[in-house]
């Protein structure tokens, strides 16, 4: 489309754009600081309490009690804080112009710390996104911004939450924008999302939070048909994503069918996890970042690890636990990568890394953010291959997602 | 949006998706090979002839003759090959379902080699995109694919052309997709574009082409308000992009006003460049990648280099020369970065790198591809900062582009 304009209007246009940029940089920086500080409080609280509980070998025996308290807190004080946070935020953006009950912020924080510290299998990004979005919504309400602006603030808050949890500012910011409308990146919120993401990442780093950064010593070997293997792995990770999504749905439906109060379900959920941890291993409990780090450094795990982690996570999120789903997805993706590498005799570290981002892409429908994350965490050499596996996983897993409130703005994935 | 499906339909759905993925991987790989081979031929021919002409100190004295021959060739054999190639391809996708005259391929190749080898200031990506798109269109015609499929093939061809010219497979593939519809990444062509991009990059690498890869030894210093400086630089690079776009328009209009044949204009254009090169320096002629590489390694240039390069490029592309616009944009962006760094006493290499991707983002309206390119060329540490400068430059330069055929599918950039 050709643009026609007069000389005087260019100055006016530029001034408007400049003021717009300046205004949104300031707002976004403010949101970034708010979210950075609160994410740090959450992450520190999570770190301390996990350290405390893990002094005891059988800390997870208290899981039923932890789930019970978490579900009681949520039921009593802020029912929006239930389940994994990100989907609730997506729903709020689409249906309520981003309006979020501020009570969600402290409740989600405490409920998630309780859940994860005692061994619930959940992630830390959901609460951060929800806390970020909640604070941004509060900020918009206090200063009486319009509905459209509030929506933008909340998207910034989500991006800021993701960036400061992952430690991958570009992928985090794009993730926040990409999960909202699959197939349609919102260019209009790119700037505030990036600024909020960078600033909150700055703040958490200054306050002492550290992140996974594990560049692979990877040199693709053209003679070994590496690209072909990556393509096949993409199909496998797509099927894993599909199984994961269905597994989450299964436990949600199961929980819905059981005719009991939330608190009783929480006790049942906690008790089931205790039994499963005693039978298999406590490694499936909690965030599981140790396992993720170990696999991307090339260490192996039980071949069925990715399947068991799905069960642990499904029970946690549908039976009283509170928390996000991305850290479990990292675990599932990287251990699925180990399985794939072992079956075909490939390099474990490489396919654990590709699995991590590909299952993320398929399960949350975020091929661009996941591709960028692969470069941010694993370095630029693996990036192009990981990107192809991410896109294939995105397509093969079909029009489903772990976030049921996502809006699909594309008809065909291929 | 919640998805409901029956057990049997999942299998059917997955089979369809799998066949779709497989089919498009094969098509895209084929296009990637075709484009990779022809890009290599073009790049080698360009390399050899440039090496040949540059043996002589005053090789550029033949510029009027080179422009004349280039414009004669285009006028006689394929008038679609005129100007910088990418815009013609964008137009073909939007208006003619990607139909491209196959004569464009050889004509564009020869005309661009003539233009650049004798000192015309133009880029190598436009011809590659046009050659890639032309071959893909021919392929679709021979095998009688539908209009929709042809469009997809042509987009793959563009992406493959970019990937194999830049040597940045992810950014190249996304660039091809992003420039077509500003504000709306086409998720449905992501897979074929990536595969075609990767494969053509593979092929050119195997055939001996090498690329700019210049990781910066960059550690952000939080105490120096680095983010703030990056934000200010983004505004500056946005204004540079705007000046560049207007400069291209100016020379295009000027050429339109002159009442003479294309061939006379070519002689005038070539002669003007000879005079300018003798007055200033021959460094503004040709691709100028030496200057780009030197600046991102921290070397300085004349402060007005970015402005002069705009003039050289404007004359080349509107007065008989053939070629792309991106390599000049790299030159303009990186030397504008040197200017900015010198004025504010900052690190030259860092701001040359940020300038390179930010002016690219503003001038071609590709904030995502440019951000990714910053990581692919300069490493993950500079990435987040470069991304912010890219987005600001994208906004500040307003709803204009060096590609007038781009379709803007967003109303507001902020």
What does this structure look like?
- The structure is a homodimer of 414-residue chains.
- Chain A is mostly helical and 414 residues long.
- Chain A folds into 2 domains: 193 residues, Clc chloride channel, CATH 1.10.3080; 187 residues, Clc chloride channel.
- Chain A is 69% helix and 1% strand.
- The first copy, chain A, is built from 16 helices and 2 strands.
- In chain A, strands 1-2 form a two-stranded parallel ribbon.
- In chain A, helix 9 crosses helix 16.
- The first copy, chain A, is globular.
- Chain A starts with 6 loop residues before the first helix and ends in a 6-residue tail after the last strand.
- The interface between A and B is large, with 68 and 69 residues.
- Chains A, B: This is Voltage-gated chloride channel.
- Chains A, B: Pfam families: Voltage_CLC (PF00654).
- Chains A, B: Its main location: membrane.
- Chains A, B: InterPro entries: Cl-channel_core (IPR014743), ClC (IPR001807), ClC-type_chloride_channel (IPR050368).
- Chains A, B: Keywords: Membrane, Transmembrane, Transmembrane helix.
């Amino acid at each position: 489309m050709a643009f026609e304009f007069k000389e005087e209007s260019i100055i006016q246009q530029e001034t408007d754009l400049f003021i717009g940029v300046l205004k949104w940089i300031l707002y976004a920086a403010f949101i970034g600081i708010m979210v950075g500080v609160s994410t740090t409080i959450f992450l520190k609280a999570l770190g301390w309490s996990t350290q405390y509980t893990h002094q005891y070998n059988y800390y997870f025996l208290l899981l039923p009690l932890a789930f019970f308290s978490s579900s009681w807190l949520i039921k009593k004080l802020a029912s929006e804080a239930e389940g994994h946070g990100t989907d609730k935020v997506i729903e709020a953006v689409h249906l309520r112009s981003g309006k979020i009950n501020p009570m969600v912020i402290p409740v989600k924080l405490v409920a998630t710390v309780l859940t994860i510290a005692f061994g619930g299998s959940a992630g830390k990004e959901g609460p951060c996104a929800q806390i970020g979005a909640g604070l941004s919504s509060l900020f918009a309400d206090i200063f009486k911004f319009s509905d459209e602006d509030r929506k933008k603030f909340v998207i910034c808050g989500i991006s800021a939450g993701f960036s400061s949890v992952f430690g991958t500012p570009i992928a985090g910011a794009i993730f926040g924008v990409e999960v909202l409308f699959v197939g349609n990146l919102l260019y209009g919120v790119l700037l505030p999302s990036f600024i909020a993401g960078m600033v909150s990442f700055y703040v958490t780093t200054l306050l002492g939070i550290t992140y996974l950064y594990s560049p692979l010593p990877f040199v693709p070997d053209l003679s070994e048909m590496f690209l072909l293997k990556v393509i096949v792995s993409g199909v496998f990770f797509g099927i894993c994503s599909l199984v994961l999504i269905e597994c989450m749905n299964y436990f949600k439906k199961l929980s819905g069918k059981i005719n009991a109060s939330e608190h009783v379900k929480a006790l049942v959920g906690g008790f089931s996890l205790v039994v499963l941890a005693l039978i298999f291993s406590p490694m499936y409990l909690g965030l599981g970042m140790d396992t993720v780090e170990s696999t991307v450094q090339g260490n192996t795990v039980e071949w069925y690890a990715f399947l068991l982690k799905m069960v642990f996570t499904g029970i946690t999120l549908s039976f009283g636990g509170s928390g996000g789903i991305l850290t479990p997805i990292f675990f599932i993706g990287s251990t699925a990568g180990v399985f794939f590498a072992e079956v075909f005799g490939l390099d474990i570290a490489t396919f654990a890394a590709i699995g991590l981002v590909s299952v993320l892409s398929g399960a949350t429908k975020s091929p661009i953010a996941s591709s960028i994350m692969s470069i941010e965490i694993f370095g630029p050499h693996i990036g192009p291959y990981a990107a192809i596996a991410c896109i294939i996983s995105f397509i093969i897993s079909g029009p489903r997602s772990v976030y049921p409130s996502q809006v699909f703005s594309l008809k065909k994935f291929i």
